[in-house]
């Protein structure tokens, strides 16, 4: 329970920090909230919630490999088998743009992990393309480059 409270506080602080730095519009904040929700669902190992943040044809370009929702479901399922798995995301947005029903964001992402008692982290430089579906933004494409592992 404390882990989830900490994660929620950390994500909220990061979200409001990004908003304060850029004087974002409410539309831009909604786009960023979608990215935050996507990574929260990965941390929570909640595939059904993750699908809510993505289009059906969602794809990830991760260091030269193409992933889709099925790939991410496999990764979530693997992590579900690790009893002490924990992931805390830190996302620092530096660009958010909207043109009609298309949005794109660029940000630094860091995930701090605990797996089988071992702590590690990964830092990425990422960008995403989102499309507006009704009132909601959905991630259609995520491009991710690993910067550092530790």
Structure description:
With 150 residues, the protein is of the alpha+beta class. It has a single domain (2-149), classed as Nuclear Transport Factor 2, Chain: A, CATH 3.10.450.50. It contains four helices and six strands. It has a six-stranded mixed β-sheet with strand order 2-1-6-5-4-3. A hairpin with a 2-residue loop joins strand 1 and strand 2. Helix 1 runs antiparallel to helix 2. The longest helix is centred in the N-terminal third of the chain and has 21 residues, at 2-22. The two termini are 26 Å apart. The model is unreliable at 1-11 and 16-21 (pLDDT under 50).
Describe the secondary-structure layout:
Elements: H1 2-22, H2 26-44, H3 47-52, E1 54-62, E2 65-68, H4 69-80, E3 86-99, E4 102-115, E5 118-133, E6 136-149
Parallel strand pairs: 1-6
Antiparallel strand pairs: 1-2, 3-4, 4-5, 5-6
Task: Briefly summarize what is shown.
By secondary structure, the chain is α+β, with helices and mostly antiparallel strands. Helix content is 39%, strand content 47%.
């Amino acid at each position: 329970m404390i882990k989830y409270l900490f994660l929620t506080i950390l994500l909220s602080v990061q979200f409001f920090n990004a908003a304060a730095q850029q004087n974002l519009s409410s539309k831009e904040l909604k786009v960023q909230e979608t990215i935050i929700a996507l990574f929260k669902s990965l941390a929570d190992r909640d595939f059904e919630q993750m699908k809510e943040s993505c289009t059906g044809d969602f794809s990830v370009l991760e260091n030269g490999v193409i992933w889709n929702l099925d790939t991410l479901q496999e990764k979530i399922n693997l992590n579900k088998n690790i009893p002490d798995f924990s992931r805390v995301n830190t996302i620092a947005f530096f660009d958010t743009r909207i043109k009609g029903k298309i949005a794109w964001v660029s940000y630094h992402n860091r995930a701090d992990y605990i797996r089988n008692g071992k702590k590690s982290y990964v830092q990425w430089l990422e960008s995403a393309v989102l499309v507006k579906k009704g009132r909601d933004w959905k991630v259609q494409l995520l491009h991710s480059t690993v910067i550092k592992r530790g």
